[in-house]
Amino acid sequence: MRTTDYTIRTATPGDVAPARAVMLDTVYRDFRTGYVPRWHGDVIDPVGAYLTPARHTLLVAVDAGGEVVATGALDSRGPAHPPNPAHVAERYPSGVTAQLRRVYVRPEHRRRGLARRLVDELLAFAARDGGYRAVYLHTDPAVEGAEPFWRSLAKVVHDEREDAGGGQGIVHFDVPLVVSRVAVSRD
User: Fold this and answer.
1) Cα–Cα distances in Å, from 94 out to 50, 75, 151?
2) Are 74 and 51 contacting, i.e. CB atoms less than 8 angstroms apart?
3) Which residues contact 177 (CB under 8 A, 6 or more apart)?
4) 83-138 confidence digits (pLDDT tens)
5) 100 phi and psi, to 5 degrees?
6) R_g of the chain, CA atoms, integer Å
7) Prediction pTM value
C-alpha cells in the first residue's frame, strides 16, 4: 500500500475499540510494559481523554479495507512532575501546551508515512485551536525507530539518559507549532 491508500480522520465512537487495540498492542509489543494504569489510562478511556474534551483529539489511519491501523492523539495536558523533570513540566504547562500522544502504527503498516501524516494533522489541529503556545512530546528511545523519527521533526529539550542514573531514559521534545505559516518554537 502507498500512503495515499490510507485515510486519516478524526476518530468516531465506532473507532474507539480498534484504536484501543492498536494502542494496547503497542504498549505490550513495543514498550514491553503492558498496560500500566498510571501511564495508560487514556488508552482504556479514549472517549474521556480525547473525544469529549473540545481541545483534544484522537486521529486514526484507516486502510483501504476499513481497518484502523494507526493512531495519533493530542491533549492539553503538559507533562507532570514527577515523573518528568521539573524544568520540563514548568516549560510546558497544561492548558497552553498541546501534548502529542499515542502516535502508533501497526508494524505491517510502518514506513509508509502514516506517522508523519498523523503528526501533520495533529499540528494543524493545535494551530486551529489558537490557544496552544507550544507542542510537546516524549518518547522512549528503546522503541525501534521512535527517536530518529521524532528527531527529524522536533528539537530535543531534555534527554534523561544524560541525567545521573539515567532518569526514566525518556527523551523530551519541542515540536514547532506552525501558526499562519510562521513557526513558533520555544527555545
Assistant:
1) 15, 9, 23
2) no
3) 98, 123, 126, 127, 132, 133, 134, 135, 183, 184, 185
4) 999 999 999 999 999 999 999 999 999 999 999 999 999 999 999 999 999 999 99
5) -80, 135
6) 16
7) 0.92
Which segment of 25-39, 40-54, 58-72 scores lowest on mean pLDDT?
Answer: 25-39
List of residues 6+ apart from 30 with CB closer than 8 A: 104, 143, 144
Residue 114 one-letter amino acid: L
Q: What is the 3-state secondary structure (H, E, C) of the chain?
A: CCHHHCEEEECCHHHHHHHHHHHHHHHHHCCCCCCCHHHHHHHHCHHHHHHCCCCCEEEEEECCCCCEEEEEEEECCCCCCCCCCHHHHHHCCCCCEEEEEEEEECHHHCCCCHHHHHHHHHHHHHHHHCCCCEEEEEECCCCCCHHHHHHHHCEEEEEHHHCHHHCCCCEEEEECEEECCEEECCC
Q: Could you count the other beta carbons within 10 Å of the beta carbon of residue 128?
A: 9
* Separation of alpha carbons 68 and 46, rounded Å: 15
- Looking only at the bridges linking them, the beta strands covering 177-179 and 97-105 are unpaired
Compute the distance between CA of residue 62 and CA of residue 18 in angstroms, rounded to an integer.
Answer: 10
Grid cell locating 72: 495519533
N-term to C-term CA, the chain: 39
